[in-house]
Amino acid sequence: MKTETHDVVIVGAGLAGLSTAVFLALNGVRAVVIERNASTSILPKARGQNPVSMEMLRMAGITDAIRAARPPGKPAITSLVSESLTGRVIYDHIAHRPDFSRFSPEIPGMASQARAEEALLQRARELGVDVRFQWTCERIEENDERVALELRDLQADAAFQISAKYVVACDGIRGAIAGQVGIGHHGVGHLKSVTAVRFNADLSRWAGGNSMTIHYVKNPALPDGSGILVSTDYENQWVGNFSADPDRTPEETRRLIRILLGLDDIDFEVTGETTYNYSHRIADRLSSRRVFLAGDAAHVMPPTGGQGGNTAMQDGFYLGWKLAYVLRGIAGPALLESYDVERRPYAEIVCTWQAANLAERRDMKNLGTLLGEPIDHARMMFGYMCVDGAFVRSSGQTTVSAADPFEDPSRPTGMPGARVPYALLQAGADVINTRHQLAPRFQLYTADARMASQAQAIAQDKAVPQQVTVVDSVAPIQLDAGESMLVRPDGVVAWRGRSADALAQAYDRVLARA
């Protein structure tokens, strides 16, 4: 059996695995990624990148690729609850969506999961990541020092053993790694079985010309009174989604598609179908001793709301820098404990939000009673504050409630544990966009030239990647006069204060160096 030794092995080359690989590499650590399939995803799946994801993808250098992957049509989204494609509109999600431009400089992307994975794969390889397709993980065992993986190259039918310092399990809904390291899960569980039918039809006369179109159809003639019609990457290719029935005939499937469309005489060609389950499931922990869960291995949710793929990519973003800093000796191993502490509460929120959307959009009243109504979209996406984690709470700062860990994103606090406020800062003749400043290093904002000089000396002494920006005023990021702000590589406020000594202590606490 061939043996190898690596710092990090990532199991799974989906959105979570490739995102983790990219952000590890940007922070100086190249992982090995293994994927049991022959390529990234090829089937129509999740679509869309929210502004938070687009901010991180800008850091990764692939926003142009994501924009270029927009499907044919006008750069706009149609998202409706309706009686059919051609029937009465019940609710328009886009018309009621908050103005995201108040919270982020990025507009949402419209690439499909398949195209986003292609962009991440290309970027990972540009950064020197070793991605191996048609490899599978057969067994994993960890101890306090390392993780032993038994792998198989499916093409060569050759067994490998890899010893890794850390493993990131991105092995999906049916992945076995969580169970092998003793991590259980909780949640509502199975919600619904659905069948997605791909078909070709020219619907331009009725669908409009937007790049992305989705209709949540409520119609008593459909199974369980509801279904979904959604566009894909290809002109005139669509997916119809309705409750699964193993006894459904091809003729009945065609009848249901006509109901989704509200058209009796439309000509179309069915090209395939897939049956799968909607579930609500969250891991009890996102990490063990040396194994971390990300993406569907950590949290499973129905697609209603489009945040599953976004949350998977963001897992890699928030984990990547921490893992890299520990491996590079910049941070102590205890920093990695903050991944579970910070991300699992958010996973719970997003999973429940999407399941509540499902209950609302498909009239699943029992589920709606269990979960309640969806929370405000902008608050969920932009207002989350970590209850605890890798940051230093300010003196007098109110403790964040675990029951409601949000701030109003239209009134950001700039408090440690929250997102750095989206603001434009004047720095002499330059204008600094705080969300475009995100990079694989810490950011320090200050209006005090002396503090700037001291901060540079502190970072150099501690060998911490840091950029200092001296601005004319710190008021736009909610600081008082004389305060400075330290922002982590993932855009979370790590510290705010007035003295260089306090900054030095904050670095030691945030990076678990004390």
Alpha carbon gyration radius: 24 Å
Give the averaged pLDDT, no decimals.
94
Helix content: 25-40%
Q: Number of helical runs?
A: 13
CATH superfamily of the largest domain: FAD/NAD(P)-binding domain
Can you characterise this structure?
The protein is of the alpha/beta class. It has 3 domains: 2-70 and 110-187 and 280-342, FAD/NAD(P)-binding domain, CATH 3.50.50; 188-279, D-Amino Acid Oxidase, subunit A, domain 2 (D-Amino Acid Oxidase, Chain A, domain 2, 2-Layer Sandwich), CATH 3.30.9; 385-510, Glutaredoxin (3-Layer(aba) Sandwich). It contains 13 helices and 23 strands. It has helices at residues 15-26, 51-60, 63-68, 113-126, 177-180, 204-207, 250-261, 308-327, 337-361, 365-371, 377-382, 449-462, 500-510; strands spanning 2-11, 32-35, 47-49, 74-82, 89-92, 109-112, 130-133, 135-142, 147-153, 158-169, 185-200, 210-218, 226-231, 237-243, 269-283, 291-293, 299-300, 424-427, 430-433, 442-446, 466-470, 484-487, 493-497. Strands 5-4-12-13-14-11-15-17 form an 8-stranded mixed sheet. Helix 1 links the parallel strand 1 (2-11) and strand 2 (32-35). The protein is globular, with a radius of gyration of 24 Å. The two termini are 42 Å apart.
Please describe the structure with a list of short key phrases separated by commas or semicolons.
514 residues; globular; 3 domains; FAD/NAD(P)-binding domain; eight-stranded mixed sheet; 29% strand; Glutaredoxin; D-Amino Acid Oxidase, Chain A, domain 2; alpha/beta
